[in-house]
Design brief:
The chain is built from 19 helices and eight strands. The chain is an alpha/beta fold. It has one domain. β7, α18 and β8 form a beta-alpha-beta unit. Bound molecules: iron/sulfur cluster (2 copies). One iron/sulfur cluster binds next to loops.
Length: about 425
């Protein structure tokens, strides 16, 4: 990574502590990504973004702020980027995926909170992530209990707006979410001093639909018999989706897809024949959490799809573009986002239907349903997911993990044994 120490200092970061994190990144990138064979050439852009993860994009955001721009930090796939960008703001995802930040979170949170929450709180309070330092406002949401309480702690340190996400999906809940989307719009207008108009909201609905379509195209390439890209590389792209400039990201994904589609036409695969096709379902994998994919893809499997928020939940379903008034557009945005099936909803059969559908669409040999330790929602739902898969004759394995490496060998043993049983 180039030298961004001055910028990090200006952001009030603990630069010495941050150096410790920077030191381990090149090794991890080498082990997980560069060791893979036959990677698409057009992964070069995403490798660059990763190598400069705490440099290039934060520098762009700092420049944007110098010109009066406002940056909104988000934590969840339910927060609609369309609205933030329509008001001239920039949204950036903040979920943290490294064990490095967990001890900092544990200073203010009980140990039995999921690592994603602990790492996110630790990254802000320990001043070791530039994204967490540069945001003007955090936008939280009432998904799981751990996040709700963590937002109360973060609110002592940085302005916080919490969206009240309904926990059921009746018509009246979708209308209620549309009201929350409207409240977010009011916050964005207040922060940026800009007006959200029918024109700029409609343009941003189209912009983010295009981004979702690019990801859909990327995932469609993974339905092919010969796999043109690894799951590990695709996971990196899904993680970068949360914080990269949306237009540039869309363009780079489409350029990559051209290469992948040529590979499919040429019958080229990054995996040897007979590699078992795996669907991963469960909790999201925030950057730089690549543990599960790395283990699966070095144990005779290929991850062909993720039913997670760093996967299909992020991009499936478009916002209806036919809305003319702001109210119609807010309602259409609410409908699209309420179509995401997170385990925080009840009842949540639609998520099980998604897992079954994706298992068939991606012609998988087996499903690994994996949740982060102390995530009660996905842990409880795992039983129903596995039963539904088994009832359809689809082999399934339920796993729990965290951000440490202490269980890596045990996970590898279980995953290898599971893959060996697949026909
Ligand atoms: S798993 Fe649920 S709470 Fe977490 S990012 Fe996805 S939608 Fe939000
Ligand atoms: S993984 Fe589970 S506990 Fe952790 S933030 Fe997501 S929903 Fe909450």
């Amino acid at each position: 990574m180039a030298d961004y120490r001055e910028m990090w200092k200006d952001l009030g970061m603990d630069v010495e502590q941050h150096d410790v994190l920077c030191e381990v990144l090149p090794q991890a990138v080498g082990d997980v990504f560069l060791s893979q064979e036959n990677r698409p050439e057009r992964m070069d852009y995403f490798d660059f973004v990763l190598a400069e993860v705490h440099g290039v994009r934060p520098a762009e955001l700092v420049e944007f702020k110098k010109n009066g721009g406002k940056v909104f930090g988000t934590f969840c796939a339910y927060v609609p980027d369309e609205v933030i960008f329509a008001g001239g703001g920039i949204a950036t995802g903040l979920c943290a995926g490294s064990q490095f930040w967990v001890p900092g979170g544990e200073k203010v949170l009980p140990a039995n909170v999921c690592p994603l929450i602990k790492a996110s709180v630790g990254a802000r309070l320990e001043r070791t992530c530039p994204f967490f330092r540069l945001v003007d406002v955090l936008v939280g949401e009432t998904t799981c209990d751990g996040k709700k309480k963590a937002y109360e702690i973060l609110a002592n340190d940085v302005p916080m707006h919490v969206m009240d996400l309904p926990q059921m999906k009746r018509e009246k809940d979708i209308t209620k979410w549309a009201e929350e989307v409207k409240d977010l719009a009011a916050l964005v207008e207040e922060q940026t001093g800009n007006k959200i108009t029918e024109e700029n909201l409609a343009a941003n609905i189209v912009k983010f639909n295009k981004k979702r379509q690019a990801l859909e195209r990327l995932y469609a390439a993974r339905k092919s018999e010969n796999l043109p890209i690894s799951g590990t590389d695709t996971l990196l792209i899904s993680q970068i989706a949360y914080y990269d400039d949306p237009d540039r990201f869309t363009e780079k994904v489409n350029v990559l897809c051209e290469e992948l589609e040529k590979r499919i036409a040429d019958g080229f695969s990054v995996f040897p024949a007979g590699t078992k096709r795996i669907l991963v379902s469960g909790t999201p994998m925030a950057i730089p959490n690549w543990k599960l994919h790395n283990i699966i893809e070095t144990s005779g499997g290929a991850v062909v799809c993720e039913e997670t928020c760093t996967g299909t939940r992020y991009f499936e379903n478009q916002v209806d573009e036919s809305g003319k008034t702001l109210d119609e557009m807010y309602q259409n945005i609410a409908s699209r986002y309420m179509g995401i099936n997170c385990a925080c909803f009840t009842p949540n059969e639609a998520r099980i239907d998604d897992v079954l559908r994706l298992a068939k669409e991606y012609k998988v040999d087996g499903v690994i349903d994996c949740h982060l330790k102390f995530c009660g929602l996905y842990d409880i739902e795992s039983n129903a997911v596995v039963k539904a898969l088994q009832a359809e004759g689809i082999p399934a394995l339920a796993l729990e993990t965290d951000y440490t490496d202490t269980d890596a060998q045990q996970l590898k043993t279980r995953i290898e044994a599971f893959i060996e049983t697949l026909n």
